[in-house]
User: What shape does this take?
Amino acid sequence: MTIVRDPEIADRTGVVASPLPRRRKPVPRRIRTFTADDWFSIVGATLASLALVIIGYEHLLDFSGPLGFGVCWYLVFLAIYATVVSISNPRPVVVERLVTVTLWLAAAIVVLALASAIIYTFAQGWHALVHLNFFTHDMAGVSPTAPLTQGGILAAIVGTVIEVGIAVVVSVPLGIGTAVYMTEVGGRGSQLVRTVVESMTALPEILAGLFIYVVLIVGFGMAKSGLAVAVAMSVTMIPIIARAGEVALRVVPNGLREASAALGANHWNTVRKVVLPSARAGLATATILAVARGIGETAIVLICSGASSFLTFNPVGVPMNSLPLYIYTAYTTHEKAALTRGFGAASVLLAMVLALFVVTRLLVRDKGTRR
Amino acid sequence: MTTTAAPVAAPKVPRTPRVIKPSLEGTDRLFHGTATSIGMFVLIMTGSIGIFLGYQAIPTLRHYGFSFFTQTQWQPELDKIGIAAVLVGTVEVALVAMVVAFPLALMMALFISDYAPVRIKSYLISAIDLMAAVPSIIYGLWGFFLLQPHAINLARWLSQYLGWIPIFHVDTDPNAAVWQQSRYTSSAFIAGLAVAMMAIPLACALMRAVFDQAPLGEREAAMALGGTRFGVARTVVFPFAKGGIIGGTMLALGRALGETAAVLIIISPAYIIKPRILEAGTQTTSALIAGNFGDATKSQLSALLAAGFVLFLITLVVNSLAAVVIRRSRSGATTEL
Assistant: This one.
């Protein structure tokens, strides 16, 4: 016989056992997994270990360096925390607590590393970014040591946009076409295509660049140019698009295809009007992923396009600068002004990637399609 | 169930099943033809790269023979060319990267799937995706300018206390009052740290995807038996996701082996087989190609292609193994990138 104290339940079940008057509205109890005890033990352990390490590390043992300090602090913290938790908890709980704080630390390290890379790039490039000429001039006739008020990365931006543009025009139809072939048409060859495409995602970028360099530039005597870069970029982008696109097409429910066929559509119309539109978000994500990879492709531009300081819109026959190449050349000069410009270019590159990234997020969120 | 139907005379069924002919009309034939030819074109194009690299490697291998794999120097003018040192350097950088990246990626993945508060979970997933999208040259600059000044302190500390282990030894006095900082810069260790930044998101994304697929029923069963979150992870999530963990790690290893830009920025080239990862100077295959293709003659290009071919074979084996491991395992068939 249980006594139901909760008036609501009592009403509903008809069991009236308590003399409790109906005073308060029932408030759902907040379920906490982290109690005050936990808070006190974690904060206490943090402070205790900090104090201990300050005294021991800096004063008694005469070590120095923030990194060592952090590591010692953390180890001492783990020891103290484990001790404190084990006072009132069984062993599995102690392990659980230690794992939790370790995982939080790992996540913090990863996020911090990423944030530091992004923030550092923008902070270093800031001095170059505030000058308008940085975006509207090229480096023609400007020496690496010139002040930041001269020269800019216009040529590099234009070069990157043109190269990536050509690469997208080449690789999107081929990549999505391959994905359609693998999922929709199939046949005997598709397994082979899948295997080869999958293994080609293992191709290091530098080898794609070297391949194009040897075949097109040395072999056929083509000039180092934006086109050579674009072709090499396509070589690395096609497998990415094909593979990610295949995943996107495979998650289209088969019922849709069957419904379309039942309505009398032929295969081509099914693919064009049903399958591809349903997988649009996934395919767009695949493309943008590949573009983000292409934009940052350093190894290829290093090999296939000669560095040039001039602004050119011509992808054939003349060397074409690009952002990664600009950054790398700026780095090799070891001049302060050039380095700042290099970081400025890196910030622009990073901003482009970030923009693409945000677009992908929005696409995925709107359609609610899995990636 | 009492209805009993009077036996109805069965309609005459033809003995042989009707033959269904999948005949394609014109549009579809064109569509299939186009798709197939695109697939074949991509197959031939990508396949030809592998074959081309192998074909180009033949003259070099014939000329240098087995010494191509044992010679450490890369001095075309002396006709001494070999990839022994370069391969060792490549593997060292990749291994350092994986030693750093594997625990971080695993912990990050477990954190995202099981431990993170719901509010920040999606942000963490985005952060990992973003991390994968950041160009490698930016990690290179980050590693060289921001990380290196701090990392050399760690390197010195390691060589001070663990210098008796050959890999942590550095040919200088780590205890000197004014220690030689330049002996610790541009090492395989620091390059590996930068490459780890590229390996972490790749491994983590795959592991997290697999962790999330761990069957809810088994998770809840473990919880109901009184398991802690770590208990659930240990008994349900990890066994389920073993394939994903190994596969993701190997995919990341494949990427780390072929990484160019970040390594090129950080290391200073040195053509000796060097187990001392903390010491300045090493060389990797991709950095070798990037540094030497410019003034290479035809035969030297062939040598570079041969080196590239060896690298490609290694990454290919690693990636294929990863694919097999992922496919064989219970866990997710879907891998992205």
